[in-house]
Amino acid sequence: MLLAIDVGNTHTVLGLFEGEEVIEHWRIATDARRTADEVAVVLQGLLAQSPLLKGADVDGIALCSTVPSVLNEMREMCRRYYGDVTAVVVEPGVRTGVPVRMDNPKEVGSDRIVNALAAIQLYGGPCIIVDFGTATSFDAVSAKGEYVGAVTAPGIEISVDALAAAGAQLHKVELIRPRSVIAKNTVEALQSGIIYGFAGQVDGIVERMAAELAEDPDDVTVVATGSAAPLVVSESASIDVHEPWLTLIGLRLIYHRNTM
């Protein structure tokens, strides 16, 4: 089985593949203070409690990380605890099949390239990937499968945290759809602003990106992913498909591209 690990700024998502299917998945907090040994304890504990493994072993690891300090510990964890398992870390020199048409390709996060590969394989191009994570990332992929550009905006959770910290009478609220857009109380006013505000942001940015990306903007497929995506997908007019495991799927594709 293949273990795919996506280390983000806030959360680390792990997925276990049997063939092309994600049969088990976990989400844990990303903690830059964790050592390789601590990471191994957490990982082995998660694997041990899964009834789906049925005694099967991990025979491959695919990994990407946007946090350099965590990436170093992940490498050490793979070396010490999974030394006999083939591990592919997405970094310069690893074959992804995605040409990067940016001023400085090294600035592009590995997760964004992984997402681009998965989106182009699943849905074709041109496409726009909207990743709702610590930041809300918009990635443009051409009809030829090239990564051609990006937009980055503050993410939903950090925006909520900033609002709660700056407003004396405001506080964090449960992120659910309010009864109506025009709210009758402070909690629902915040919920309305967050949910519909971000949906409007997504639609506005996607419309402008699609106009630049393709002669006919209707040809552009918009793919949503990320932990906060379910909050916005149903309220956005521009999102075509929601794929929660987009990064994990991309990691699987890159693993096989580099080991077969």
From TrEMBL:
Residues that, per the record, bind substrate: G109, S110, D111, R112, T186
Biological or metabolic pathway of the protein: Cofactor biosynthesis; coenzyme A biosynthesis; CoA from (R)-pantothenate: step 1/5
EC category name: transferase
Keyword Plastid: no
Cofactor(s) named in the record: K(+); NH4(+)
GO CC annotation terms, alphabetical: cytoplasm
EC number, UniProt record: 2.7.1.33
Cofactor note: A monovalent cation. Ammonium or potassium.
Pfam family, one: Pan_kinase
Catalytic residues (positions): D111
Described function: Catalyzes the phosphorylation of pantothenate (Pan), the first step in CoA biosynthesis.
Protein family per UniProt: Belongs to the type III pantothenate kinase family.
Subunit and partners: Homodimer.
Official protein name in the record: Type III pantothenate kinase
Organism: Planomonospora parontospora
Source species taxonomy: Bacteria, Bacillati, Actinomycetota, Actinomycetes, Streptosporangiales
Originating gene: coaX
